[in-house]
Amino acid sequence: MGGAVEMLRWQKEAAVRVEKAKEMSQEQLRGKFTIGILADRDLPVYTREYDKVREKAKEF
Fold first, then answer.
1. Residues 9, 37, 3, CA angle at the centre, nearest 5°?
2. pLDDT in tens, 22-57
């Protein structure tokens, strides 16, 4: 791929924002990658859920 400058240039040219990617065809997206917020979900914090599991396990 070349040196650092070439790699950064490729990343800049191949990056497509999610909003723009939604309007593009599969052919137009070939060789490119999407950037931006791909998923925005409210999920429980892992450590809190893990602590709950540990507390339940102590009951046995």
1. 15
2. 999 999 999 999 999 999 999 999 999 999 999 999
